[in-house]
Design goal:
Blueprint: E1 6-9, H1 19-34, E2 38-41, H2 53-66, H3 89-101, E3 105-108, H4 112-125, H5 140-148, E4 154-157, E5 166-170, E6 174-178, E7 187-189, H6 197-207, E8 212-216, H7 223-233, E9 239-243, E10 246-247, H8 263-268, H9 273-281, H10 296-302, E11 313-314, H11 317-330, H12 333-346, H13 352-357, H14 359-370, H15 379-387, H16 394-401, H17 406-418, H18 425-433, H19 435-439, H20 443-455, H21 463-470, H22 472-485
Parallel strand pairs: 1-2, 8-9, 10-11
Antiparallel strand pairs: 3-4, 4-7, 5-6
The structure holds glutamic acid.
Length: 488
């Protein structure tokens, strides 16, 4: 029987969740769900200067927004907690005691200055800049005596000389090989008693019974060190899968230079979590090399590390925007109304009560909007005229209302609309289509004038439907007001 899959996402809360971290989280989560395993969230907050609670909360919010749920973590608990490294000091102490018992570590009494001097000398010689193993030569009895006497010391891993290369089968990149001679006797516990990064991660992954470590390949040089820590503890290492980096379109590693990188920035720009999830899934994995619309169920049912690419993924914001537009268009109307209402409420254009009372009206508005936008932040500018009074933009005034004949076109339009029996888009359309010929004007000039009058701008949802949704009184009042400032 194979053990159940357990994977983890282990962000350092030194910033918000960015695209690269989110992609790592998605792959771990999809892998866990695909195999009916557990997805663990561990907060690696050992860097006290750069870690903040605010960042931890932002990471939790971003994951929840994307719909990536974890089974164990700092907020939900679980059998292998605590799930913040700063709360796990007793576990690191136990692990150090185990390594001491197994003779796998030795105390190092070299001072920081001494180590720095040795490093510089080694560099000047062009040799291995690692620790020269001075303290490894101290006899166990002498070392124990100095420790007992309170001589300041760190603990170093006794990397076995005769171990041979550290080799592991990376589930994405294939066989990886690191010569043992290039691996330092790394410090596992500093002289102040705090664990080092590679020690803490290996202890955590071992004690949390992690079966697969899926992470960015910026960690690949840490893996052989962590494998040696596992071996020193007498624990079987997990399987490893290192994900290639994400590049910007210029072939450089994705960073702030390429624009927004945090998940919450994408949320604020009007991206849908399901579209971003879909896009993140495709940043290095593919279903069949061609399908682009992959919902979460399909992802969960099909995700596999075999289909993760070794090549860097290119972040293409236009493709993400296009994908978002597809999700918006294909969303059931009821759902789109809910999203639209949330955006309108945030903008102060709609109250929760109005959202309920005007549901039918909002349902009629929904398709006019959803077919024309790629991002939810386009909703407010597009429909503001239906919720608030509008001031005609100067640009629109000059381009449309200052055209000869605009005033009479608007006056005629107001008159034609006043006498309509039913206030419905097809009747409105018939009434307005009769005007241009009668006025000797181009249809576009007449319709643009009416559009500017009711929306204040030259871009809007379709005109006749917009008029219907605005309501007769407000529509006519705006057309009359525009007529007063339009040219003869
Ligand atoms: N805390 C590390 C990071 O945020 C991840 C460590 C790991 O996945 O092993 O890059």
């Amino acid at each position: 029987m194979t053990e159940p899959v357990r994977v983890r996402f282990a962000p350092s809360p030194t910033g918000h969740l960015h695209i690269g971290g989110a992609r790592t989280a998605v792959y771990n989560w999809a892998f866990a769900r695909r195999h009916g395993g557990a997805f663990v969230l561990r907060i690696e907050d050992t860097d006290p200067e750069r870690s903040t609670e605010e960042n931890t909360q932002a990471i939790l919010r971003s994951l929840a927004w994307l719909g990536i749920d974890h089974d164990e973590g700092p907020d939900v608990g679980g059998p292998y907690g605590p799930y913040r490294q700063t709360e796990r000091a007793p576990l690191y102490r136990d692990a150090l005691a185990l390594l001491q018992e197994r003779g796998a570590v030795y105390p190092c009494f070299c001072s920081a200055e001494e180590l720095e001097r040795k490093r510089q000398e080694a560099r000047a010689r062009g040799g291995f800049a690692g620790y020269d193993k001075t303290c490894r030569a101290i006899s166990p009895t002498d070392a124990a005596a100095r420790v007992a006497a309170g001589d300041p010391h760190a603990w170093r891993l006794k990397v076995p000389f005769d171990r041979g290369d550290v080799v592991f089968e990376d589930l994405v990149r294939g066989e990886m090989r690191f010569p043992i001679s290039a691996i330092d006797d790394l410090i596992v516990v500093r002289s102040d008693g705090t664990p080092t990064y590679n020690f803490a991660v290996a202890v955590d992954d071992a004690t949390m019974r992690i079966t697969h470590v899926i992470r960015g390949d910026d960690h690949i040089s840490n893996t052989p060190k962590q494998i040696l820590v596992y071996e020193a503890m007498g624990v079987e290492p997990p399987a490893f899968a290192h994900l290639s980096m994400i590049w910007g379109p210029d072939g450089k590693r994705l960073s702030k230079r390429h624009g927004a990188t945090s998940v919450e920035a994408y949320r604020d720009m009007g991206y849908l979590p399901e579209a971003l999830l879909n896009y993140l899934a495709l940043l290095g994995w593919s279903l069949d090399g061609e399908t682009t619309i992959i919902d979460r169920e399909t992802l969960i049912a099909n995700f596999s590390l075999e289909r993760v690419s070794r090549n860097p993924a290119i972040f293409d914001s236009e493709k993400l925007e296009w994908l978002n537009g597809v999700y918006i268009r294909e969303m059931p109307r009821e759902q789109f109304v809910d999203r639209m209402c949330a955006v309108l409420q945030d903008a102060g254009l709609l109250s929760p009560d109005e959202a309920k009372e005007r549901r039918e009206w909002l349902l009629a508005l929904a398709p006019l909007v959803s077919e024309r936008i790629k991002r939810l932040d386009e909703v407010v500018p597009m429909v503001r005229f239906l919720f608030a009074e509008v001031a005609v933009e100067e640009k629109a005034k000059d381009a449309v209302l200052a055209v000869a004949g605009a005033r009479s076109a608007l006056e005629e339009a107001a008159r034609a609309l006043e006498s309509l029996e039913a206030w419905q888009s097809d009747a409105i359309e018939a009434a307005l289509r009769a005007l241009p010929e009668r006025l000797g004007m181009k249809p576009k000039a007449v319709f643009q004038a009416v559009r500017v009058a009711i929306t204040g701008t030259t871009v809007s949802p379709p005109l006749f439907e917009s008029l219907e949704l605005l309501g007769r009184e407000r529509a006519i009042a705006r057309i009359e007001a525009a007529a007063r400032v339009a040219s003869d």
